[in-house]
Design goal:
heterodimer; A: mainly alpha; 2 helices; 47% helix; B: alpha+beta; 5-stranded mixed beta sheet; two-stranded antiparallel ribbon; 7 helices; 9 strands; 24% strand; globular
């Protein structure tokens, strides 16, 4: 199937914003993890946050 | 700024001292599979006197002191653990909240039947079920609780439909 030519100067439409509700894909990914892995995800988040707040870079 | 919470380190010390407790709040929600963030570990200990003694030994090993806006160095003791309802502690492994109740009046005895054990690393961790976490946050009704509720409720829905 041939693609339509994009007119010069055409700005692509902004992506449709996702719904404002919870992200099912993220929840399902989290649910696929073991408890140990879930806690590791949370630990990674707090470690990164504290590092940023303390001015460190990974 | 105090040190970042190291959840597993705190849980290991509690386990080593055989402190009977239930993990509640944000960490319980995370262990149940909710993609939320939290910066402290919340527990509800069994209020039995012998368990309180073990809890005191554990928090002493963790070098716990009370979070005190005035900057005083206040440490837990038997009397405080027996009488205060909320202990916002700063430990060498990060913040630890020790709670006598959650929600409005949910006590250890009332939530004990709404838990299950999860394996976390080498530990068996007794964790509040997600439906009870939601109920506690509905009762607490603080801004941060209301903000988390849509994710927690959707996680519970997806858990039930996916059988996770």
């Amino acid at each position: 199937m041939r693609q339509k030519a994009i007119p010069e100067g055409h700005q692509p439409a902004p992506p449709v914003p996702p719904g404002s509700g919870p992200d099912d894909a993220l929840i399902l990914w989290m649910l696929s993890l073991t408890s140990t892995e879930r806690l590791a995800v949370a630990q990674g988040f707090v470690d990164s946050t504290y590092a940023l707040r303390n001015g460190q870079r990974s | 700024m105090d040190n970042a919470p190291r959840y597993l380190d705190i849980l290991e010390v509690l386990a080593r001292h055989q402190v009977e407790h239930i993990v509640v709040g944000g960490v319980a929600a995370i262990l149940e599979g909710a993609p939320v963030s939290t910066f402290d570990l919340d527990i509800v200990p069994d209020p039995a006197p012998d368990n309180r003694t073990r809890l005191l030994a554990a928090v002493r090993e963790l070098e716990a002191r009370y979070l005190d806006p005035a900057g005083r160095h206040l440490v837990p003791n038997e009397t405080k653990l027996a009488t205060l309802r909320l202990h916002q502690l700063i430990t060498r492994a990060g913040p630890l909240d020790v709670l006598a109740t959650i929600g409005k009046t949910m006590t250890y005895e009332q939530i004990a039947g709404r838990t299950h054990e999860r394996t976390v690393g080498n530990l068996r961790v007794r964790c509040l079920n997600l439906d009870a976490v939601i109920e506690s946050k509905e009762q607490a009704d603080r801004d941060k609780d209301r903000a988390a509720l849509p994710i927690l409720r959707r996680t519970l829905e997806l858990k039930r439909t996916s059988g996770s």
